Automatic annotation (TrEMBL):
Subcellular location: Mitochondrion inner membrane
Protein name, as recorded: AAA+ ATPase domain-containing protein
The family this protein is said to belong to: In the N-terminal section; belongs to the AAA ATPase family.
Residue ranges annotated for the AAA+ ATPase domain, each copy included: 275-414
Statement: the UniProt record of this protein carries the keyword Repressor: no
Cited PROSITE patterns: AAA (PS00674)
Encoding gene, per UniProt annotation: AFG3L2
């Protein structure tokens, strides 16, 4: 608001900080706005008030702007603002303040007070709107102002003047001469003001809008800079380091080697090796691709340029290729450097699909990117990194060696990786004094199979939030267990009221899952089962999946049977089925299709593998015939029926155990593994349940983080060390009297 600018403290702070340009811009625009709203405000009130109340500000102003010469006259933008402001204030000052406005009188006052007394020399009709009264020499009023009065029309004024002079007996040569003139009174300026304000506002918005965010030092913004890249050059602004990245040691080594290429190229050139052009980071969401790039920016000691793939595409044709060209111009100016393109699938999709015969803007942008990465002008030390979780849709020309020489896959971390990630995220947390971070990290890693780095960060944050919610002094292991349940199953809904019949159905449903998994060898061990609603589900069961990568038909069948245990228990005990098994049936169907279509685990369909469509992906054609599709559907139904019948047989044999677990669930609502052992006895199969057992035979308890000999000083230049060693050698030769 204008009041904030007029506040003497704000103006003074602008002067103290020496930021004259920004202070002047803000003052200029707000002061103009204030002038047109409160036109009577004196022009110099702001500075006068500021300097009168705070004389120190005047001294500071003179010191900074005059004595030290800190007025940025060389700044083109400053000169533009200064000259435009000076011209505007000159015009405003003249029209509204410096010009003598005279004194208005009525027609009657003019006739009786001036015309009748004979002090008028002549009359001047200005713009046919008002009349100036020019006094005879020596008869000017004391205040020195001329007087004027409005007229309706010139004809009426002339008739009234003639009548008045006749009544006063003024005839012949004594009659007043009337002169007609035209003057600029500022009305044109005021009439143009709305147009000027609208144009100024539009220009201001264009400069401030998304299309106007040109890079500093690149001239005007707005539409004139729409072809400029929006990339950011980072040097020391990133606080993330490689010590903050865990669970992907192999990928870290690859990235370190790229930085070492730029810092110590002679190490590789002496052996005839060429510096790789780039690498693409792929993997599921949340595994640390962008975090690894941030760590590279934080430790590379070379310029790091980052841009998002979607920033190349705009509403204007030709902007994408122009921004790609400008991006690589920027990169070559900062070479050696690293260029990171995040979510490159936004611009790197395969060409020739869905364009209906015409080249799309995305294709033109991709073509320009291909040329810049491996064309005729690529002999520069610019390493291109990119990140995506959809490498399958990228254009093959983009993925070939010479553009992206390496594809670095960052998958979900294994149990050692998860333990390392937990250690990173446990550092800033205030843990209970009885908790050891090393032990806690390993235990949490065993409880979170399949979790990505982002999931683990979420678990640690949720544990801290839960502890704060209960006003705990520190975070305990119970808080971490509750956080894992929160992330897996959703928010616990203790206030959701179930009808007694519904609650009983949910209890038997969850008991069916628990008992089926307890007596199936390849099913996942049970950790906890609950009938308290969580998320979208009315019940919740937590299992401890085995840390394995290969599955047999028998193992997959046992998992299907455990998943169907809830639906089978409903049918056995109530003689009816409910909608509560919808998610279970979805998982079973996906598993059955995967076994038959992808894994070749069906004799009739054969040893073939077809890609299943992704969720929400439109399938225009299938890679197999209609007959094969019908066969696949038939075999899927047969497989699910087999699993269902096997589960029925198992739960009929264990019917008393199911009822025992269900009744205890209705009583306690939550059962853990100890309760299951008490009700059913020990599980009849050996199971791994601790971190130490999981990593047995893997060569160590923790991730191997040792660096190869050539990467010990991966982000340091070795030239200075060689020079020092040479100097030391010369010094030794001189000291020993040896000729050289």
């Amino acid at each position: 608001s204008p009041a904030s600018v007029l506040n003497n403290k704000l103006v003074g702070s602008c002067f103290i900080e020496g930021d004259f340009l920004s202070c002047y811009k803000e003052f200029l625009w707000v002061r103009c706005f204030h002038l047109f709203i409160v036109i009577h405000l004196p022009l110099t009130s702001c500075s006068a008030c500021c300097f009168q109340k705070n004389p120190a500000y005047k001294k500071i102003f003179l010191k900074h702007l005059i004595l030290q010469g800190e007025i940025p006259w060389d700044d083109k933008e400053f000169r533009m603002y200064f000259l435009s402001g000076a011209a505007f204030w000159t015009a405003v000052t003249y029209y509204f303040f410096l010009r003598d406005g005279g004194r208005e009188v009525t027609w009657k006052d003019f006739v009786n007070g001036y015309l009748a007394k004979g002090v008028v020399d002549r009359l001047e009709v200005v713009n046919k709107r008002y009349v100036k009264v020019i006094f005879s020499p020596g008869k000017t009023p004391v205040d020195g102002q001329y007087v004027w009065f409005n007229i309706g029309s010139v004809d009426t004024f002339e008739r009234n003047l003639e009548t008045a002079q006749l009544e006063l007996g003024i005839e012949g040569e004594n009659r007043l001469p009337v002169v007609y003139s035209t003057e600029s009174d500022g009305s044109f300026l005021l009439s143009m003001l709305p147009t000027v304000l609208i144009i100024g506002f539009l220009l201001f918005m264009l400069r401030r809008g998304p299309a106007g965010a040109g890079r500093p030092g690149r001239g005007m913004g707005g539409l004139f800079s729409v072809g400029e890249t929006t990339a950011k050059v980072l040097r020391d602004e990133i606080d993330v380091k490689f010590k903050d990245v865990a669970g992907c040691e192999e990928a870290k080594l690859e990235i370190m080697e790229f930085v070492n290429f730029l810092k110590n190229p002679k190490q590789y050139q002496d052996l005839g090796a060429k510096i790789p052009k780039g690498a693409i980071l792929t993997g599921p969401p949340g595994t640390g691709k962008t975090l690894l790039a941030k760590a590279t920016a934080g430790e590379a000691n070379v310029p790091f340029i980052t841009v998002n793939g979607s920033e190349f595409l705009e509403m204007f044709v030709g902007v994408g290729p122009a921004r790609v060209r400008d991006l690589f111009v920027l990169a070559r100016k900062n070479a050696p450097c690293i260029l990171f393109i995040d979510e490159i699938d936004a611009v790197g999709r395969k060409r020739g699909r869905g364009n209906f015969g015409g080249q799309s803007e995305q294709e033109n942008t991709l073509n320009q990117l291909l040329v810049e990465m491996d064309g005729f002008n690529t002999a520069t030390n610019v390493v291109v990194l990119a990140g995506t979780n959809r490498p399958d849709i990228l254009d093959p020309a983009l993925m070939r060696p010479g553009r992206f020489d390496r594809q670095i896959y960052i998958g979900p971390p294994d149990i050692k990786g998860r333990a390392s990630i937990f250690k990173v995220h446990l550092r800033p947390l205030k843990l209970d004094a009885d908790l050891d971070k090393e032990t806690l990290a390993r235990k949490m890693a065993a409880l979170t199979p399949g979790f990505s780095g982002a999931d683990i960060a979420n678990v640690c944050n949720e544990a801290a939030l839960i502890a704060a919610r209960h006003l705990s002094d520190a975070i305990t292991q119970k808080h971490f267990e509750q956080a894992i349940e929160r992330v897996i199953g959703g928010l616990e809904k203790k206030t959701q009221v179930l009808q007694p019949e519904e609650k009983k159905t949910v209890a038997y449903h969850e008991a069916g899952h628990a008992v089926a998994g307890w007596y199936l060898e390849h099913a996942d061990p049970l950790l906890k089962v609950s009938i308290i609603p969580r998320g979208k589900g009315l019940g919740y069961a937590q299992y401890l999946p085995k840390e394995q990568y290969l599955y047999t038909k028998e193992q997959l069948l046992d998992r299907m049977c455990m998943t169907l245990g809830g639906r089978v228990a409903e049918e056995i005990f109530f003689g009816r089925i409910t909608t509560g098994a919808q998610d279970d049936l979805k998982k079973v169907t996906q598993s059955a299709y995967a076994q038959i279509v992808q894994f070749g685990m069906n004799e009739k369909v054969g040893q073939v593998s077809f890609d299943l469509p992704r969720q929400g992906e439109m399938v225009l054609e299938k890679p197999y015939s209609e007959a094969t599709a019908r066969l696949i559907d038939t075999e899927v139904r047969n497989l699910i029926s087999t699993a269902y019948q096997r589960t029925q047989q198992l739960l009929m044999e264990k019917k008393p155990e199911v009822e025992k677990v269900a009744l205890r669930l209705l009583e306690k609502e939550v059962l853990d593994k100890n309760d299951m052992v008490e009700l059913l006895g020990q599980r009849p199969f050996a199971e791994k349940s601790t971190y130490e057992e999981f990593v047995e035979g893997t060569g160590g308890m923790d991730e191997d983080t040792t660096l190869p000999e050539g990467l010990k000083d991966w982000n340091k230049e070795r030239g200075s060390e060689k020079e020092e060693s040479t100097d030391e050698q010369v010094a030794r030769q001189i000291k020993g009297g040896m000729p050289f």
